[in-house]
Amino acid sequence: MKIGIIGLGLIGGSLGLDLTAKGYEVIGVSRKKETCDRALEKQIVTTAGQNLELLSKTDLIFVCTPIEAILRTIESIIPHLSPETIITDVGSVKGAIASPATKLWSNFVPSHPMAGTANQGVEAAEYNLFNNAPCVITPLPQTSPLAITKVSHIWETVGCRLYQSTPELHDRAVAWISHLPVMISANLIYSCTHTSSPEVIKLAQALASSGFKDTSRVGGGNPELGLMMAQYNRQQLINSLREYQQNLDLLIESIEGENWEALTNILQETYQNRPKFI
Ligand code: NAP
User: Fold this and answer.
1) What CATH code is carried by the domain that includes residue 180?
2) Which of 48, 49, 106, 138 has the least C-beta neighbours within 10 A?
3) Any idea which UniProt keywords this protein has (predicted)?
4) Ligand 1 atom 38, closest CA
């Protein structure tokens, strides 16, 4: 299979690195010439350029741009493709993409590899990013089974564990384990830096160690990604935030009321349940 990748940043670049290393012919397209040059230097791709026409002979194209550019990008490549070409994406939300993208291109398979780091751009691309990471395919009833098999095969080739769900179920699940944690972690950093005493803030910054490093990691990452999660998975994120707020109130009440038994029960439950997620 001849593979095309549009957007050679963290996700597209890392995918290209693994596929090129495995001997695939990988054609990369990016907006900037510097990105294309660097992608060739780093052996992310075998061919690179800024012109979408380069993708006309590819069998499978991964759209790895920011979420807001995915549909626009699909629209722009369509004039260059033959009908057998499969298009997939890597966007972190699926409800806003799966149906409109399938309307644009019937041979479209929505996908989302659950892997990442705090870095972005072509320099952030790394080998084995997807090794043992979950990848969710969210097909619609009309999605071609052959196209699903081909897209799944490539994700498995780079080490992903494959799952399938509807776009809606995907968006509800990732609101809980990906988008809500970004907002909670961001709010933690925000609250710590806006607390009233500058003296306390200064000392807290000096004392922050591994616990704060863990809990602040996702909230201190790429701001554009967090914004897009909120914009494109808005309702599911609001639902999760509201439920979270109710549970936060329960925590506050138990501490305020010195209800140590209630607090112990919550903490024992979270101690037991964490391994079910990671
Ligand atoms: P990234 O490192 O910023 O890379 C984005 C790439 O897209 C860059 O190569 C950039 O090209 C290009 N690009 C940026 N804006 C564009 C636009 N308006 N039109 C066309 N191309 C554009 O981002 P990323 O983290 O790889 O994220 C890419 C996609 O992966 C997103 O849809 C995101 O939801 C999804 N995703 C991200 C993660 C994560 O943890 N980061 C995890 C799973 C999925 P130039 O360098 O040439 O400007």
Assistant:
1) 1.10.3660.10
2) 106
3) Coiled coil, Oxidoreductase
4) 116
